[in-house]
Specification:
Structural class: alpha+beta
CATH architecture of the largest domain: 3-Layer(aba) Sandwich
CATH superfamily of the largest domain: Class II aldolase/adducin N-terminal domain
Number of helices: 16
Bound molecules: zinc ion
Length: 372
Amino acid sequence: MNTKLKSLVDISRHYGSDPDYVIAGGGNTSYKEGHYLWVKASGMALATIDETGFVQLDRRKLKVIGEKRYSEDVQIREAEVKEDLLAARVNPEKGLRPSVETSLHDLIEYPFVVHTHPTLINALMCSQQAEEKTKELFGEEVLFVEPAAGYSLFKIVKEMLPAYRQRYGHDPQVIFLQNHGVFVSGMTTGEIMQHYETITETLRKIIGPEEIRYLPIGEETEQLRQEFSRNTGGKHVVVRHNNLHRHFYDSVQAFRAVSVPFTPDIVVYCGAEYIYSEKNRIPEILGDVMQRITQYKQRYGNAPRIVLVKDYGLFGIAEKEQVAVTALDVFEDFMKVSYYTKTFGGPHPLTQETIDFILGWEVESYRRKMYG
Ligand SMILES: [Zn+2]
C-alpha cells in the first residue's frame, strides 16, 4: 500500500475511534497527490476504515464544481453538485459515494485533511461567543466560517481563501466551522495531530472535564422502556441514565438547551425535534409521550428517535437497535456540548432554515438511510 494512504488510514482510525472527536459516521478525511484526491466514502465509519473505504477522485474534474453555475433552487443545486461529484470518480464501478464535504477537502492545498466534529471544539462552535472567543484563543491565522451546509459552505470558504492566501502566503491549516466542527490540514498527519492537540488542550483548560456518572436503571425505568417498545409497534428502545441527563430533564426550561439541534449530525442521527416529558407516573408518561410521538409523525412523516423523561433518563427509539444506540451517542454528545457552551455565553443552535435544508437534503437523507 502507498505509505501516504497508510498514514491516512491510520489517522482516520485514530480520530474515528475516539468519541471525543467522531461519533458514528461523522467526520471525514482525505489525501491528495498529483491530480488525485482520496476521500472517505459517505456512510463509512472512520474508526474501522481501510484503504477500500476511500473514493479516488480526479481533481481536474472536481474543479468544475467551483466554476459552474448551478440552479438557484437549493435542493436542485445540491443534486446537480452531487452529479458532478460522482462524475469525478476514477472507479465509479465500485459504487462508492464520496463524502458530502469532498469539495471542501479539494479546496485546501495541503495533502492531508482531517475533518471532525469534536465535543470540545463544538462547545465553542455552538456557543454565542463562537467568533470572538475563537479569535481571542487561536488568533487571526485560523479561519472562522459562519454556519452553512453543502455547496454554500464550499462557496463561502472558496471566497475567503484568496484574501487569506495573500495575507499568509499559504492555506489555513485550521478552519473552524460554526455549528459544525473543524477542518485541520497539513503536509503530514503528525502536523495535523499537533494542531488538534494544541486546540484541545487550550479548550480543556477553560472548559474543564465533565465526568459522566451512570445512574442505575431501576425497575420502573425498565418497565417504561418496555412500554415504549410495545406502544411503538415493537421498536427497539434503549435507555440510559446518567448525571448529564439531569442537567436537562428537570424542567421545560432546562430541556430548552437541547431542544433545537446544534449541528447537521444531530439532525441526521437524532432528527430535528425531541420528545420531553416531565410527568412522573408511568401511565401519565406513556400517555404524554405517545401523544407527542403522534404529533411528531404528523409534522415530519417519520417517528422521533429521542425521548427524555424527567427522573427516568434518555430513551433512543428505532427500528434497529444500533440506530437507537447511535442516536443516544450523538444526543449525549449534544448534551455535553450544550452544557459546555455555558463557558462561552450559552448555546447557539442551528437556524430553522438550515434544519429544513438538512431535512430535505438528498445527500444527507442517503446518510440517514444508511443508518436508518
Ligand atoms: Zn462535517
